[in-house]
Amino acid sequence: MFHLTEEQLNLYMDDKLSTSERTAVEAHLAGCDACRAELASLQALFTALDALQPAALAADLTPVVLRGVAAERRRTVRRRRISWLVPALQGVAVVLLLVFGWSALVMRYSELTQRILAEALYASWANTLARGGALWAATVARWQTWWAEAIADVLDLPAVLGQAISHWPQLPDLGLTAPQAIAVSLAVVLMWLVGNSILLRTTAVRQGLNRHLNHQ
Amino acid sequence: MTFNSGGTEERALVARTLAGDDDAFAALVRIHQATVYNIAYRMVGQRETAQDLAQEAFLRAFKALDTFDLKRPFGPWLYRIATNLSINWVKRARLPTVSLDAPYPADGDDAEPLAVPDTSAEPAARFAQAEMQKQLRQIILSLPPDYRVVIELRHFQEMSYEEMAEALKAPIGTVKTRLFRARRLLRDRLSGVLDQ
Question: What residues does each domain of chain A span?
Answer without folding.
Answer: 6-50, 84-215
